[in-house]
Amino acid sequence: MKLCVYLSGEIHTDWREQIISACTEQKLAVSFLSAVTNHEASDAAGDALGNEEQGFWRDHKSAKINAIRTKTLIERCDVAVIRFGDKFKQWNAAFDAGYCAASNTPYITLHNEEIIHPLKEVDAAALGWATTPEQVVDILKYVVNE
């Protein structure tokens, strides 16, 4: 079985690269899709639609353009991994988790124990909670190997 995995959430650490390289090294039948990880590019996604004087409207247009990508990739994946980091609040990741739950897309959350409480609803709908990229790889290995 080949599995398509969408990687969502925190963009300030190398957790995506850790998962991808470990799956590659172990020759797992897994392909990956990802949210835009360049913060500036994501913020500018709607700029092609014209300049905005107010930050709200720039963010509003960019969020909608980003949503085209996010919605399409979540619908295309078999499972999502949604990372919540320590440094910033990933409201977009929480939204992705909600979209996964609403569309019946299985997802795994990846975060440390310090934020269990604020993520209790997100974790309750997840099919797995991991604290390390290695745990995610172990889950993916179990799912794809017969």
Total number of domains:
1
Number of strands: 5
Radius of gyration: 16 Å
Determine the fraction of residues in helical runs and give it as a percent range: 40-55%
Structural class: alpha/beta
Helix segment count? 6
The global form is globular
CATH architecture: 3-Layer(aba) Sandwich
CATH fold assignment: Rossmann fold
The poorly predicted ranges are none
Q: Roughly what is the average pLDDT, rounded to an integer? A: 95
| Strand residue content | 15-25%
Spatial gap, N to C terminus: 8 Å
Layout of strands and helices, then pairs:
Elements: E1 3-9, H1 15-25, E2 30-34, H2 39-43, H3 55-76, E3 79-83, H4 91-102, E4 107-110, H5 120-125, E5 128-130, H6 133-144
Parallel strand pairs: 1-2, 1-3, 3-4, 4-5
Characterise the protein shown here:
With 146 residues, the protein is of the alpha/beta class. The chain has one domain: Rossmann fold (3-Layer(aba) Sandwich), CATH 3.40.50. The chain contains six helices and five strands; from the N terminus they run βαβααβαβαβα. Strands 2-1-3-4-5 form a five-stranded parallel β-sheet, sandwiched between helices. Helix 5 links the parallel strand 4 and strand 5. It starts with a strand and ends with a helix. The model has no long low-confidence stretch (mean pLDDT 95).
